[in-house]
Amino acid sequence: MLGYPPTLGVFKRLAHSTTLTNPREVPVEAGTGHPLQDEDINVVESEEYAGGTILSRVRVMITMAETRFRIDGVGEWEVSTTNSVYPPKEDTKMLCRVVSKLTKGSSANAVEIGCGSGLVSMVLKSLGWEVTAYDVNPYAVACTRGNMDANGLSGKDNIYEAEFGEDFPIPEEVDLIVWNLPYLEEDVNNSGILEMIEDVALTDLPHGGWGRMLLDNLEGASNKFTENVVVILVMRTEPEGSSKVLDWEERGWSWRSLGMERYGSEKVETIGFWRTGSGTKVTTLDSCKSTMDEAKSLPGKGWHRVLSRSQTNGRGRRKSDWISKEGGLFATWSLSAELLENMSPGLIQTSAGAVVSEVLGSSMKWPNDIVNRDGVKMGGVLVESTNDGVIRVGVGVNNTSFEQKGIIGSGWDETLGEIDSSEVFQRIDGGLSALFENKEMIEMPDIDFYSRISWKALSRFLSRGVLVSRGKEIYRPTGLSLDGGLEVVGIENVVNLHDLEGIRWFVSKS
Predict the structure, then answer these.
(1) List of domains in the chain
(2) Nearest to residue 228, comparing CAs of 332, 108, 95, 133?
(3) pLDDT at residue 3 tops 60
């Protein structure tokens, strides 16, 4: 966790309860201003050790800190903490800002893991959520209970001491799980500075971290539960810690970054995860003429997509033929027409292309081509909006390079190696879901986000010194408009291109 103060007191090494049915009693005084009993503190003395302090055998006074927090339109809370409980810091406040913006459905049951001072749980309670909270630290449990009581909030009986693990009780009716994940690296050179309770609360695990342990726990739960739950985690993404977003991606979860802060060289993000499609199954075909045509029968609401193992009559931009090599990817997504209220089809197309090129480790050539480093086409993205009020996003990608009928194509074997199309589909499915799936509770990205990711993907190709000609004029690409058009600068004027008519590309060979 970020900014943890020097430890002034330590706990006895206590065994931790892991069951909901018999929570161990903790000293309520730790969450109030009342004096502590002698047996509540280990008797210690201080000794300097390698830049830290080992505490042993002298009496240490546990001090209290009080802070008042306010979120406009939500509430104001006074939070008291002891020096052995993680106090609200910048990452805590970032998480509070995120949960204060969540859309609460008809059911509103939340679980907070590692509640610490209880501020996040109090924000949720103030917004009308039913909250169950856990912490391995008995003094954190006491602080949360005391703070909820002091701020006039009910529910302190739903705050439990529990160590996260295989038997960690998460009610199946929960809609939201939040956790400000520990992300300190294990300090093998100074082991013993933190007591066990502090170490668990602040230090991530190796080999996947607490994030993967939570994921394993959820994957072992019922399908109905995991299909609907939203998980919001505070994670260190730069430098990446043991808990990784990629672990969730690989298991079929979509995600959006909901908040970000930088603290020196560290980047910490609040990330929302959900099961891609929320349980909606993929329509899978052995063969079809075109997945774009097959998608016409898909529902217009929800996250629906059709995947075919082979395609005999695929089409590209302006209804041109698309050569579909066996083993490639042929899929179409049916998106809600509500997207068009805020986005143009052109920006939807470039944003989808950004996802595909990122997954394939390739580049994107405006407006819809997926290309390798030399500009040879690997695949394409096609967007159609029809009178039935549905947007269809078709993706076709080669798995291997080929030359046929005078056409040269590249494949993802150049960038990803020999992996199956089903794995490529899952990665693209999750990436498109992150952009376009309207997940209840989590805000959709703003229009500028789609423009930024599109330009970032285009820049991988344009940075090689690409020029564009139209007629006798030579242009240099300089940006992307909010409607998905390519902004180019010539000698005498600036043009916003919306069509490939008369366009030629010049790519540097250096």
Answers:
(1) 28-277 (3.40.50.150), 280-451 (3.30.930.10)
(2) 108
(3) no
